[in-house]
Amino acid sequence: MKAPNRDLLVLVKHARDNEDAMERELVQLNKLLMDVETQDTFSHVYEIIDCNKFRINTDSRRIMKLIHNGEPPFVFLNNKN
Asked: How far is CA 60 from CA 6, 30, 39, 75, in A?
């Protein structure tokens, strides 16, 4: 198998029966995840809860800035799920 940039755990019953089919599935799964895991999508599913200012912020630029700079005290990154 080729070495992608991520570790995937895929559980199947008949993986050894057809190595080529398994390889194709992993390549398709990797392509799907690369399309979905972007900064824009990431910032849409998170929000910033600022307990210091009693605010909830959903601005994409502020979310990415918070991730890169780190979280100050009582400011939390929350998944909307």
From this structure: 25, 25, 9, 16
